[in-house]
């Protein structure tokens, strides 16, 4: 059976303890933001993976952040409270958007997002499963507002929540489908370090006139600088301004490449200098 435990899985940065004093519910409201926990199934089947979604619904014009927030901001921080024999995996991050805010450019989700997380349910588990989560976030428009909540979802679900499961599962599946996948094996990527820029060349096998690169590491490129795109016969070339905070070139650039009409892909490009092998 599920055993109560003080074991807590912490993802990303720590939360303030004040959230513990808040009333516990499956959903919570805060300025410009509504958050709730949703599930892919009405029950936690022993020996299976259950997908839980943390859903943000934001007022028009407001955004929440990706794992790399860009010029400013913070990604949502999660701290799970689970029975000791249940394990939470990493957040599945849907491909982000490039969001200009004044002179800054952030990476995130305009209007909201579902962040799926897999829960591993052990074989032989029995009884109700209580999924607890403390979450802290930052939402921005022309100003930024922080929020936090303590959420709780119990499975099996009650009758009213069971009626919503089909829609919840669809929302979680759609978010998972937006996760950037590994680039096709036939693609190649390389980056050349110049004085102020990285020139990133991606061979996709087909001409591409547009594309956006979202770095997975902070402070490598200047997020607010325009990304200059040049179409190539077999792909595209992106000129990326280096971050002012970058002191030495990284060994590689790793990030998400978004091309119009194609699923976003994760690419890794070795960084070299002009004339180097």
Shape: elongated
* Helix-strand makeup class: mainly beta
The total domain count is 2
Question: Total helix count?
Answer: 2
Computed Rg: 21 Å
Report on this structure:
There is one protein chain. Helices cover 6% and strands 47% of the residues. By secondary structure, it is mainly beta. The chain folds into 2 domains: 8-179, Immunoglobulin-like, CATH 2.60.40; 182-272, Immunoglobulin-like. Strands 13, 14, 15, 16, 17, 18, 19 and 20 form an 8-stranded mixed beta sheet that branches. A hairpin with a 2-residue loop joins strand 17 and strand 18 (235-241). The longest helix has 13 residues, at 165-177. The termini are far apart. Residues 1-21 have low confidence and may be disordered.
What keywords describe this structure?
mainly beta; seven-stranded antiparallel sheet; disordered N terminus; eight-stranded mixed sheet; Immunoglobulin-like; elongated; about 280 residues
Brief write-up:
The protein is mainly beta and 277 residues long.
Task: Record the SSE blueprint.
Blueprint: E1 8-11, E2 27-30, E3 33-39, E4 49-58, E5 63-70, E6 77-81, E7 87-88, E8 97-101, E9 104-110, E10 112-120, E11 129-140, E12 144-155, H1 159-162, H2 165-177, E13 181-182, E14 188-193, E15 197-203, E16 212-215, E17 228-232, E18 235-241, E19 252-258, E20 265-272
Parallel strand pairs: 13-20, 14-20
Antiparallel strand pairs: 1-6, 2-3, 3-4, 4-10, 5-9, 5-11, 6-11, 7-10, 8-9, 11-12, 14-15, 15-18, 16-19, 17-18, 19-20
